[in-house]
UniProtKB/TrEMBL annotation:
It is found in: Cell membrane; Membrane. Keywords: Cell membrane, Chaperone, Membrane, Transmembrane, Transmembrane helix. The lineage of its organism: Bacteria, Pseudomonadati, Pseudomonadota, Alphaproteobacteria, Sphingomonadales. Residues 221-247 are annotated as: Disordered. This is Tetratricopeptide repeat protein. Residues 30-164 form the Ancillary SecYEG translocon subunit/Cell division coordinator CpoB TPR domain. It is a single-pass membrane protein. It comes from Sphingosinicella xenopeptidilytica. The keyword Glycoprotein does not apply. Its main location: membrane.
Amino acid sequence: MAREPSGTAPEDAFIREVDEEYRRDQLTGFWNRYGRWIVIAVGIGLVALAGFLWWREEQVRNVGVLSEEFSSAQQGLELGNAKAVADIERFAAGNHGGYTTLARFTKASRAVENGDNAAALAEYQALAADTKLPQPLRDLATITAVRVEYDTLAPAEVVTRLKPLAQPGAPWFGVAGEMLAVAYMAEGKPELAGPIFAAISSDETIAPSLRQRAQQLAASLGSLPDVAPDAAPAADAPAAEPTTGKN
């Protein structure tokens, strides 16, 4: 009878079988203890994912709806539609992101049109003080408030409010700069007003109508930027001698 090899193959097989059985028992015990919680956790994760996808779709849909409603309200205002006025009020009092801000500016502008400067100023000042808004919009509210009460403000007060905003490169340089320069003229300081008008006239990012007006005022103050001789206006050239018909 042949002897078995001196190796421990039967023992190894037995150990492996015991080890596998032990692991099966461990897995079964783990699943019995935690399986229900795993299923619950996966379920919660799927519900959360579904909720997020639904919320994102709702956000996109709501933005589209808000855009249509706001556009319709703006068009209705031009036609004197009472419902449009109520819609703008609703947007202004709500929490609709940028549409609420636009509605607040619209509401203030309408107050000016209706002669209610006090209501307009209150709204513009609230916008200027709203730290949740981007700084350019807050600056616009400050500038517009000054424009509303410009005729009743002392020139020095206009200078104080607008000088920080009337810097070349600033978003509202053209509008703020023009009012600042006029205030300097009212103070009898044309030497301060002229360079501002000149800077506005040479800024190609500013509306052409404002640039043209600033150019005329800069010229009247002797502050036009240097121009090439061939670009000088024809009016500056000497007038031609009138012909008399004599040789």
